């Protein structure tokens, strides 16, 4: 009896379920819109688009029924006339080839690319122009102004130096951008331009400041980068890729005019400063003539990391003669008069890196490694010999971005500048009672394989946390310290230091930085460490 | 040998019968509804062939006295002075696409001949070619609905 | 049963066409559709093509809910549901990589009731795996696999493997990111089988990697070979229940007492269970959509890439040791499962839940099931990107 009741109840429940299933067709949305449009017998409107890559099936007109009816210009979406699109009839092109989204879906969420199965997002407004690049090459037709301006922004900026993009950019320092529109979301791209370390804390990309409209246009261009377009048949693709790969930079006359042309084509002022133009990210080149020999400049252009191992400057695609020409151009570039007073001198020469407040947070500081010294670090300066900062100003600091200013300022002005800096930023006076320990003579035997091996063992235990396993300053704790741990493979920098100075740094630390004193280690161990560190910076 | 219990008159026989009736009815109804769901599932709602409503060009493109065959969609558009009509080009015999002849249509498959109005002149075709509804899209093009058969001699006035 | 006699009309020749309906009916139905006496009720089961595998008389205790929880029947009902929804889906789906995903999208929009049928199929599949495992647990914990039912237990283990195989082969068919990478992970575990592992994987995939060949093979396995094998084994399984004397019952209970007719007692309860299963699955299919991720992309593995849930426990083990998780544990588990009824030689404990005499085998089984559940839970909720531990919230 009970079973009969159960069966009765379950059967009735099944009827209810059947009715619920029958009514839940999921068609209410598109049928409703067609009825609102005035169509009494709604049916799925389908455009099959062939001839533009893979076959596309677009059912957008099932809801957007008024898309080709001029009477609905003032309608509200989805019943609204499409703005005129010239030579792109809907029957031939469909909708998704420009707008993206999922053409086969018949619900708003799925069709507009908002649910989990979305292959590509639906693009509206100015972002829509990104899809023009599917078929159109630069220069883009009218109507794709944001795309065009975005591409111009890319070309005028320094993007081509670091990033790779077939046909446009040959950089290798940053990720290749050929398919970035497909791989990354809009939010990711925007974040990465505003703050490059938002998504990758180890990124060396500078934070280029640009007005919002410029950045949005650039984003349209980046979104358009989806790999080879539909308009490029495989044969053309191959040919173009080959040509791009095999091209060589042209040789030019080695004079200032060619140098200027190369300088402008390479968009150096997108980062650097020269005269009136300023990229606000990299050092000022206005006085390079007095700071670097032409050969140094040419070597630096060929490989920035030859002189400054941690430089974020890309290796540019230049021929040897172009590099020499640029050096000549920089030599002959007109220089502004330097102001006389130390504060103005500081503002003109030093503040760009060391910061207007002397805190090491100037315009260029973020991209430089080693970072510019914080002049407010009194403890540091008060434990260094007084002549060292002046030597640094006059001779520069090899292996870093600090150039020599001897020819620019002369000894007297340099001295006056340092006195001013000391008074203004360092401020604290030396404590006369603190005596500086003299760097001792070497007591250990001369360096050999054994001492280097012992030093390596000690290094692996004591030093890798900051200096990294390779001694390149990229240890796990490196990002937490300012100034950063020294890159001990910086040949230019280390050959400038004596063994005694190294021993002193190891033994008594560097006050004002994160380098602690290692007096607890036996003297012999410390000399082994010195030998090991030396071995890291031996010229190959 | 097991003893089979003799048939008993169960208590509540009436109520049990009522329950059985309701259950059977409900199950049958649910079965019908689910069956209908299954049938609707099987009925196609989209076609992968050419669209049933065919755009046949702008009004100005077809002059008076012209007959234009749109081969892919198997329709012919016929303009006479200030009126336009459409005929289907699917042979009523076995479905081949008929071709335009000098003053009518001819089927290449089994030799059916039709006059200009689609009436059968000769051959195995059992009926004349269908006249199809022509309409004007809001954008100003002719549109032929290949599934809307209209009586013979149905014309659409051409706007001057 | 006698055929209705042809009536002689009064005063004249017979009119055969008047008898036609009765004759047609009698040729199809040899006994009344609604039986009126016990003999009729027995014949309604025993002499019926669709029912004759069913016993016409059953023990009363078999009908009690606590005896079996209706789990075996639920599994069978789910299988039937899967076959019917599966055949419906076969009218829409095409097993080629260029078309499969597009067809899934069409199912979602262009086909009437497409989402409902797909959801029903997917949730029934998960339900069948759960029900099969639960049924197996019930059988073991009531000692119903012991002599003389050992072989039926082995057939049941075979059915469990077939169920998992059906679920696994079906998992690939949507050809989205979830499907593709789950099968990449799942089939790569086969590599660790010594000796035949690599060949087994290549035979399964029809290629070195998951691609068009794998899709076709999995489709054929999923819609043809495996269902036929399953149906055959199900038939054998049910037949063996009858041959083994019905459901296992405790020793000492007299045979023959408390026997009732299958019609209506057993069949009505079975109908109730079937309706219950249909209701639950139908409501689930109406309320929750089966997942669909973007088109399969061999260049972009999701992080983490997880196998279907019933393999997540193995994947968790494999993350610690490939051989242990991929080969040793499955092999040992399978061997123990197959040998279980033969290992228990002492009589007693059949037909009672968690009998004291069988405390050791029951404990081992519960522990193994618990370990499976815990490992599956860890793999599904506590493992995130790079298979590192994450909190589930």
Highlighted features:
heterotrimer, B: 160 residues, alpha+beta, Rieske Iron-sulfur Protein, 1 helix, 19% helix, elongated, C: 393 residues, mainly alpha, Cytochrome Bc1 Complex, Chain C, two-stranded antiparallel sheet, 14 helices
Structural write-up:
The complex is a heterotrimer of chains A (540), B (160) and C (393). With 540 residues, chain A is mainly alpha-helical. Chain A has five domains: 2-111, no CATH class; 125-223, Cytochrome c-like domain (Cytochrome Bc1 Complex, Chain D, domain 2); 256-332, Cytochrome Bc1 Complex, Chain D, domain 2; 342-426, Orthogonal Bundle (Cytochrome Bc1 Complex, Chain D, domain 2), CATH 1.10.760; 449-536, Cytochrome c-like domain (Cytochrome Bc1 Complex, Chain D, domain 2). Helices cover 42% and strands 3% of the residues of chain A. Chain A has 25 helices and six strands. In chain A, strands 1-2 form a two-stranded antiparallel sheet. In chain A, a hairpin with a 2-residue loop joins strand 5 (273-274) and strand 6. In chain A, helix 16 (342-354) packs across helix 20 (411-426), helix 18 crosses helix 20 (411-426) and helix 24 packs across helix 25 (523-536). The longest helix of chain A has 22 residues, at 2-23. Chain A is elongated and about 100 Å long. By secondary structure, chain B is an alpha+beta fold. Chain B has a domain at 53-157: Rieske Iron-sulfur Protein (3-layer Sandwich), CATH 2.102.10.10. Chain B has one helix at residues 13-42; strands spanning 53-58, 67-70, 75-80, 83-88, 99-100, 104-106, 113-115, 120-122, 131-136, 141-150, 156-157. In chain B, the strands form two sheets. In chain B, strands 1, 2, 3, 4, 9, 10 and 11 form a seven-stranded antiparallel beta sheet that branches. A four-stranded antiparallel beta sheet of chain B has the order 5-6-7-8, with no helix packed on it. In chain B, strand 6 and strand 7 (113-115) form a beta hairpin. Chain C has 14 helices and two strands; from the N terminus they run H-H-E-H-H-H-H-H-H-H-H-E-H-H-H-H. The radius of gyration of chain C is 25 Å and the shape is globular. Chains in contact: A-B, A-C, B-C. The A-C interface holds A 3-4, 6-7, 10-11, 13-14, 17, 20-21, 24-27, 44, 46, 54, 57, 59, 102, 104-107, 110, 116-119 and C 98, 102, 105-106, 108-110, 112-113, 115-116, 176, 265, 268-269, 271-272, 275-276, 278-279, 282-283, 286, 291-295.
């Amino acid at each position: 009896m009970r079973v009969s009741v159960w069966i009765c109840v379950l059967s009735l429940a099944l009827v209810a379920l059947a009715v619920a299933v029958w009514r839940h067709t999921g068609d209410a949305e598109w049928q409703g819109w067609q009825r609102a449009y005035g169509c009494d017998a709604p049916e799925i409107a389908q455009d099959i688009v062939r001839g533009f890559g893979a076959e596309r099936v677009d059912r957008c007109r099932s809801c957007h029924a008024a898309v080709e009816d001029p009477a609905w210009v003032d309608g509200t979406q989805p019943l609204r006339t499409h703005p005129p699109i010239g030579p792109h009839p809907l029957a031939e092109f469909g909708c998704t080839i420009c707008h993206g989204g999922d053409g086969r879906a018949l619900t708003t969420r799925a069709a507009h690319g908002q649910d989990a199965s979305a292959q590509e997002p639906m693009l509206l407004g100015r972002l829509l122009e990104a899809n023009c690049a599917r078929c159109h090459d630069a220069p883009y037709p009218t109507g794709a102004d944001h795309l065009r301006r975005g591409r111009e922004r890319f070309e005028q900026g320094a993007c081509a130096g670091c990033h790779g993009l077939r046909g446009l950019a040959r950089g290798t320092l940053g990720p290749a951008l050929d398919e970035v529109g497909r791989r990354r979301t809009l939010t990711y791209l925007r974040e990465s331009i505003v703050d490059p370390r938002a998504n990758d804390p180890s990124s060396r990309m500078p934070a280029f400041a640009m007005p919002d409209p410029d950045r949005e246009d650039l984003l349209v261009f980046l979104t358009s980068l989806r790999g080879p377009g539909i308009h490029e048949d495989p044969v053309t693709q191959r040919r173009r890729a080959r040509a791009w790969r095999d091209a060589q930079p042209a040789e030019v006359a080695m004079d200032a005019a060619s140098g200027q042309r190369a300088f402008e084509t390479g968009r150096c002022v997108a980062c650097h400063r020269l005269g009136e133009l300023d990229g606000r990210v990299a050092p000022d080149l206005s006085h390079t003539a007095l700071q670097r020999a032409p050969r140094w400049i040419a070597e630096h252009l060929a490989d920035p990391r030859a002189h400054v191992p941690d430089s974020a400057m890309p290796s540019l695609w230049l021929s040897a003669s172009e590099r020499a020409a640029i050096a000549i151009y920089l030599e002959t570039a007109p220089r502004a008069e330097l102001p006389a007073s130390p504060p103005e001198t500081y503002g003109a020469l030093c503040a760009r890196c060391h910061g207007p407040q002397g805190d090491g947070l100037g315009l260029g500081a973020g991209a430089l490694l080693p970072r510019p010294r914080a002049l407010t670090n009194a403890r540091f300066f008060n434990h260094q010999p007084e002549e060292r900062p002046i030597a640094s100003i006059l001779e520069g600091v090899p292996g870093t971005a600090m150039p020599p200013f001897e020819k620019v300022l002369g000894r007297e002005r340099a001295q006056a500048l340092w006195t001013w800096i000391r008074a203004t930023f360092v401020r604290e006076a030396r404590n006369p009672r603190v005596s500086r320990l003299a760097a001792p003579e070497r007591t250990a035997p001369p360096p050999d394989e054994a001492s280097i091996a012992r030093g390596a063992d000690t290094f692996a235990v004591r030093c890798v946390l900051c200096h990294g396993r390779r001694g390149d300053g990229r240890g796990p704790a490196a990002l937490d310290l300012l100034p950063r741990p020294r890159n001990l493979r910086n040949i230019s920098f280390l050959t400038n230091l004596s063994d005694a100075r190294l021993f002193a740094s190891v033994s008594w630390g560097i006050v004002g930085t994160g380098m602690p004193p290692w007096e607890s280690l036996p003297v012999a161990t410390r000399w082994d460490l010195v030998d090991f560190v030396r071995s890291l910076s031996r010229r190959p | 040998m097991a003893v089979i219990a003799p048939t008993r008159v169960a208590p509540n026989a009436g109520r049990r019968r009522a329950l059985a009736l309701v259950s059977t009815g409900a199950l049958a109804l649910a079965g019908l509804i689910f069956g209908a769901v299954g049938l609707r599932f099987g009925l196609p709602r989209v076609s992968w062939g050419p669209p049933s409503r065919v755009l046949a060009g702008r009004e100005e493109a077809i002059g008076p006295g012209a007959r234009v065959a749109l081969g892919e969609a198997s329709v012919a558009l016929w303009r006479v002075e200030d009126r336009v009509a459409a005929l289907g080009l699917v042979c009523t015999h076995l479905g081949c696409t008929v071709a335009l002849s000098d003053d009518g249509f001819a089927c290449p498959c089994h030799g059916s001949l039709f006059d200009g109005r689609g009436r059968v002149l000769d051959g195995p075709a059992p009926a004349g070619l269908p006249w199809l509804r022509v309409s004007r899209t809001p954008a100003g093009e002719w549109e032929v609905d290949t599934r809307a058969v209209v009586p013979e001699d149905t014309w659409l006035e051409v706007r001057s | 049963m006698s055929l209705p006699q042809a009536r002689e009309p009064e005063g004249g020749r017979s009119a055969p066409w008047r008898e036609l309906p009765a004759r047609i009916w009698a040729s199809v139905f040899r006994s009344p559709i609604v039986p009126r006496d016990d003999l009729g009720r027995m014949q309604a089961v025993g002499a019926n093509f669709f029912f004759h595998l069913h016993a016409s008389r059953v023990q009363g205790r078999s009908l009690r809910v606590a005896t079996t929880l209706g789990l075996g029947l639920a599994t069978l009902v789910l299988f039937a549901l899967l076959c019917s929804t599966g055949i419906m889906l076969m009218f829409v789906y095409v097993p080629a990589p260029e078309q499969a995903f597009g067809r899934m999208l069409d199912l979602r929009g262009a086909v009437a009731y497409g989402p409902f049928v797909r959801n029903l199929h997917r949730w029934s599949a998960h339900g069948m795996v759960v029900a099969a495992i639960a049924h197996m647990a019930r059988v073991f914990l009531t000692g119903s696999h012991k002599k003389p039912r050992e072989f039926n237990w082995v057939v049941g283990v075979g059915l469990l493997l077939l169920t998992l195989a059906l679920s696994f082969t079906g998992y690939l068919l949507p050809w989205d990111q979830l499907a593709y990478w789950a099968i990449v992970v799942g089939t790569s575990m086969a590599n660790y089988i010594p000796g035949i592992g690599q060949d087994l994987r290549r035979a399964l995939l029809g290629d070195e990697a998951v691609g068009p060949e794998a899709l076709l093979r999995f489709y054929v396995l999923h819609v043809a070979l495996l269902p036929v094998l399953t149906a055959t084994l199900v038939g054998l399984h049910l037949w063996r229940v009858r041959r083994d004397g019905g459901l296992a019952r405790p020793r000492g209970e007299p045979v023959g007492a408390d026997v009732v007719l299958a019609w209506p007692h057993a069949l009505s309860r079975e109908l109730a269970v079937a309706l219950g299963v249909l209701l639950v699955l139908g409501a689930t299919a109406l309320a929750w959509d089966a997942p669909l991720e973007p088109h399969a992309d061999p260049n972009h593995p999701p992080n983490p890439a997880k196998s279907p849930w019933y393999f997540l426990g193995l994947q968790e083990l494999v993350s610690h040791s490939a051989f242990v998780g991929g080969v040793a544990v499955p092999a040992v588990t399978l061997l123990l499962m197959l040998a279980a009824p033969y290992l228990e030689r002492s009589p007693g404990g059949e037909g009672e839940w968690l009998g004291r005499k069988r405390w050791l085998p029951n404990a081992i089984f519960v522990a193994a099931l618990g370990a499976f559940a815990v490992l599956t839970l860890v793999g599904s909720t506590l493992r995130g990107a790079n298979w590192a531990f994450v909190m589930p919230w």
